[in-house]
Automatic annotation (TrEMBL):
Catalytic activity line of the entry: S-ubiquitinyl-[E2 ubiquitin-conjugating enzyme]-L-cysteine + [acceptor protein]-L-lysine = [E2 ubiquitin-conjugating enzyme]-L-cysteine + N(6)-ubiquitinyl-[acceptor protein]-L-lysine
Molecular-function GO terms, alphabetical: ubiquitin protein ligase activity; zinc ion binding
A UniProt-annotated Pfam family: GIDE
One annotated Gene Ontology cellular component of this protein: mitochondrial outer membrane
Protein name listed in UniProt: RING-type E3 ubiquitin transferase
Amino acid sequence: MDFLSEVIGEAVILSIDSLILGFCVKQLSKCKHILNALQTAPVLDIDNSLNKEINKYPNYVIPYVVVRGLVKPLGNPITSNYNQSVTGVIQRLIIKEHVIARTSAGFWSDQTRTIHEFCNSTPFVLTNGKYSIEVVDALAAELLDLDVISDKFEPMSPGVIDHVWGFFSGVRQRGLQTMEEMLRDGSYITAVGELSRTSSGLKIQPPKDGLPLYLTTSTKSSLLKRLASSRDFLRVLLVLFGSVAAIASGRIAYKYIKRRRRRQADENLKQQLAAGRRERRAQNRDKDLSEVQLCVVCSDNPKEIILLPCGHVCLCEDCSENIRDNCPICRERIHSRAPAFIT
Ligand SMILES: [Zn+2]
Ligand SMILES: [Zn+2]
């Protein structure tokens, strides 16, 4: 059995574990980066002081900032499909299919699949009285807190044919869930992003250096707490998967060392047996041999081996083990060898 098949289980675990570990490390460094940026991000009020503050930064751009204000559409707001009295600036419609599917283990379990998702948005600002900041590219926000306006579930009543079909296909329809979420006109939210002042006014948008834009009902401190807890969770995962990697690598190393020791022991035993054989042969050999009968290499033992195809009988068995390639007499390549019995 070769070494790879001996450690295949550990190798598979180690490769899957390394992938997860790599992902965790990446997520953790991203999380720390955001946490640091958010900790140092200034919290600014949308008022007259904002212009003074932005003047302190080069090109009138504050890389990461926290502002709070009321959502107000710049044009006509979007009206909810399900509740005509609700208007907003971002609308998300999700249609989910609920099914009971048979798992590979043979159990039936509830599963949900999103079959359609649709987003709609209209330009809007965050305002606080007469001052306002336009929110650019709001749909790119990593955290976008929306209110659920409508959540309906329409169950399906399956017939006999559906039951039979479901039994064979392994999927039974339960119903459709239609959800509508909106960022309502007039809601008070926190925006975290890059704040800039251009000729058209103040804008908040996704930052350029990979930091996320947040549009949330949470405050800066609760955002920080949330990030810190996901950082801690990632650290726990890192320790967990790191230990799995260490155990798997340790087992591979242990098996490798064990295998090497075993081979070494086998080799030693083989050498010991060969030496014993050589000794026994030497004791049984005829001591009074003429010069021509002796091996051309050691001139000690009798000639015992015939080299083929050249046919020279010139070596003893011990020397023949060390001469692999060419006949020492005629230099012809040795293809095979056989014991020679000279009587
Ligand atoms: Zn010899
Ligand atoms: Zn030869």
